[in-house]
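Backbone-to-sequence.
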């Protein structure tokens, strides 16, 4: 298994566009042996300490293999909606890891 943690920063006023993209992308995860373990939208008072900009959302996703993740990223249905992602997201940080 591989684990993907993503910090997502969206452009102001683009919350609905972001949600529209996620409504397409998230269901596709299962098609590639993946599972959304959590999707968190933390409030500012959720942070104990922070030395970076607080993200709009944090996702933790599990995939069976690296190839499953790569196939998800190349999914044709997902690609049709990438313009929504580009419109809504100003930046994201992705961390890949394995369970210890």
């Amino acid at each position: 298994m591989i684990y993907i943690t993503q910090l997502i920063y969206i452009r102001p006023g683009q919350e609905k566009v972001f949600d529209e993209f996620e409504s397409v992308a998230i269901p596709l995860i299962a098609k590639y042996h993946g599972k959304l373990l959590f999707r968190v939208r933390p409030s500012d008072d959720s942070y104990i300490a922070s030395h970076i900009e607080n993200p709009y959302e944090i996702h933790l996703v599990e995939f069976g293999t690296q190839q499953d993740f790569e196939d998800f990223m190349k999914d044709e249905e997902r690609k049709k909606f990438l313009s929504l992602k580009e419109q809504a997201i100003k930046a994201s940080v992705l961390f890949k890891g394995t369970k210890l």
